[in-house]
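WARN  no MSA supplied for this record, continuing single-sequence
INFO  ligand: magnesium ion
INFO  echoing inputs
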Amino acid sequence: MGQRHILHCDCNCFYASVEMQEHPELRGKSIAVCGDPEARHGIVLTASYPAKRMGVKTAMPIWEAKQHCRDLIVVPVSYGKYQKYSSYVREIFRDYTDQVESFGLDEAWLDITGSLGLFGNPVKIAKEISARIKRELGIAVSIGVSFNKITAKLGSDYKKPDAITVIEPDTYKQIVYPLPVGDLLYVGNATQRKLGSYGIRTIGQLAETNPEVLKGWFGVMGYTLSADPCCQTKCAYRHQERWQQRHHAARFDHR
Ligand SMILES: [Mg+2]
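INFO  complex generated
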């Protein structure tokens, strides 16, 4: 089988971007979309970039966010709106491929392997999708262009907002190996801590560790961890569902 062409698209600051699209007076301001602002324990779900620059972070309590940013405009969360925009984004994706796998409201993988004849090379397709989402919905996206789901996701995380990162089979090591192991889809906090205690902090260090050594530390899971990220797709598919459930509550729209 030839090389596959996968895009991973991530809407940047999704909830905040939707709010700014619906309320133009909020554009360029420090805003935070928050869960239950009336409650004492309300927290930030998504902050706009001006708010982030002031130190406002996802999952921060509202009172703390306001200490970092005195002009912070708190907007209550309205999932119905975000679902509507999410479906608009998906409609744009479907103009380019029917192979779309959504991941939460604001991320998706697109397999465009069969679309190149019609729409041109992967970067051209990524640019077109990015431009349309910005023009039609007012939302900036970051896109990873690569040959499997994992490296595509690393690509969309690599540079934000409003960026396209290409990770090719022959150069992916230069980009992927220096990244922290925690960037891998299947390395959670506990695994990252344990790897760190053995001195393994980057994806490259993990890839270069003897699989038998990893099995000694992690059991059978060690084999999953040991392979190169580009060989990992199948394992990642298997772990993805569990990972998704585990992270759903905590992740929101963190960048
Ligand atoms: Mg996002």
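The beta strands are 6-11, 31-35, 43-47, 73-76, 100-103, 107-111, 141-146, 164-166.
INFO  checksum written, moving to next record
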